[in-house]
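Below is how a single chain appears once it has passed through the pipeline. First comes the sequence as given, then the structure the pipeline wrote out for it. We keep one example in the README because the format questions we get most often are answered faster by looking than by reading.
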Amino acid sequence: MTTQAAMIAEILDDTERSAGETDAVRDKIAAAIRYYQPSRFWFNETRDVTFDTVPGQIDYPFPLGTPGAVFYKIDAAIVTQGTTNIDMGVEDYKVLEVLLDGNSTRSLPTVYAYIKKALRLYPAPDVIYPVRLTGHLRIDRPTDDNETDNPWFVDAYDLIMCRAKAQLYKHRWGDPNNAALMTDAEIEARDLLFSATADKTGTGVVRSTRY
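Resulting structure:
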């Protein structure tokens, strides 16, 4: 599997830099990942995050569920009652504040809101209910250079490498010509990923540029 270590080695080789630049390369890879984390691609969408409600508990902080996850956007929160799946409605947290004020009702949650990095449910659950979340996940950088299966180094390898190179040439090595070349390569890699995302998700939508 492709790893951060492999990307660092490839960047050093492509740019003919010494191992003394390893930390700088790693830092720019991390910056490239941070830059693209808010962008929605097919590999950072999920329907596999689940958690169980706790009777009487209304707030469920992120990271939430199994696996622990932080969302940029929740598309749906589906609560299960017996054998029935119910798509909870989304509501402004201010509305939930009013509804919850002095309200001790406990039953099946029917709406949710995002507040203070947590999911807030209404009404407060009376029993344990399984909940499944779908949406756009934040995928973090790897914990070490040899971690495998991180999507940024599997599905978005060329995108992250091109941006890291562009930023190194621009901000560290003072080479505007190569910086421009790598920015063009980054745009091409990004557009290919957006196109693949549209194909896989069936939206047919061309995503807007970040430039």
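The chain has a mean pLDDT of 92.

See the next section for the split statistics.
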